[in-house]
Amino acid sequence: MAYPVDGGYGTGYSASAAGSKFIPEIWSGKLLVKFYPSTVFGAICNTDYEGEISSMGDKVYIRQTPDTTILSYSIGQTLTTEKLTSTPVELLIDKGKYFAFVIDDVDRYQSDLALVEDWSQDSAEQMKISIDSDLLAETTGIQGLCVAANREATAGAISGDINLGTGAAPLSVTKSTIMDVIVDLGVVLDEQNIPESDRWLVLPAKLAGYLKKSDLRDASLAGDGTSIFRNGRIGMVDRFTVYVSNNLPSDVDTGTNYVAYAGHPKAISFASQMVNMETLRAESTFGDIVRGLNVYGFKVTKPEAMAELKFTYG
């Protein structure tokens, strides 16, 4: 006979998932291990500067690589030396996400299932969606933070005539023109001398669909041995690793406009840490409250290494 449950409580999967083997430290570690690989920001940002994060309000100091002057040389000349200086950039850990749920005592002792792995997977996915949305958001995320030469109708640090769309006049993109747009994004980064390796491109699902319907079905265009049109995998396109995200904002600026981003991991610095993972006795029921706090921050530290496309579906 099942133990009686109050109508407003509900046991279900989440309440009975604790089993008898829950250890906060192990769960926290598994969460972080699963967290980064499932995220877009984990792929497009650099996480080299996480340092020691202990709470919200901490600062991570990012050391910038100074530019070295290259001089001409003549035999017998006296060499000129320069003193390189680097001004660190501060990355403020100013955002936080938490979870909190109750494990009922009866469920804990009746269950012999160790579902920490499932908890980790689901929590990492939910955390991913929330933080990805923050990073890609229209007003609080990375939109508009690349240099002026990498966006809008006169993009191109050298050419100055590449149209990446504006809020008032978004670029109309179709399955026939999507490849041209991706090439243009690559040219914009080329003109900023951004490394060709590790470049990324984040598209909404519908635009990714245009890409699959385009001439990219010819496997040779992607340097792949299997047609992308046939196997459904986007992979590498014109030096970009292509990612699909449903967290890209729509209706940006005015009208029904959309945004997509291209860049290099050097463009965005991201730091995150699960700073608190604990259990405590619940006051309103016989059980334990499990809760955790993840703090994080991000900053566009190299704005010339990112390009922005504002578009509408043609």
Overall, the morphology is flat
What is the number of independent domains? 2
| Strand fraction | 15-25%
Overall pLDDT metric? 77
The helix content is 10-25%
Order of helices and strands: HHHEEEHHEHEHHEEEEEE
How much is the radius of gyration in Å? 24 Å
Question: Order of strands in the sheet with the most strands?
Answer: 4-11-8-5-7-6
Number of strands: 11
Poorly predicted runs are 1-5, 8-21, 227-233
What structural class should be given to the helix and strand makeup? alpha+beta
Helical element count?
Answer: 8
Sheet bearing the most strands, described? 6 strands, mixed
Tell me the span between the first and last alpha carbons: 60 Å
Could you explain how this protein is built, in words?
The chain has 314 residues and is an alpha+beta fold. The protein has helices at residues 12-16, 24-35, 41-44, 105-110, 116-136, 178-190, 205-213, 228-231; strands at residues 59-62, 89-92, 95-104, 171-173, 199-203, 236-237, 240-244, 258-263, 268-281, 287-300, 306-313. It has a 6-stranded mixed β-sheet with strand order 4-11-8-5-7-6. A 3-stranded antiparallel β-sheet has the order 3-10-9. Strands 1-2 form a two-stranded antiparallel ribbon. α2 (24-35) crosses α5.
Provide tags for this entry:
314 residues; alpha+beta; hypothetical protein PF0899 fold; six-stranded mixed sheet; three-stranded antiparallel sheet; 8 helices; 11 strands; 24% strand; flat
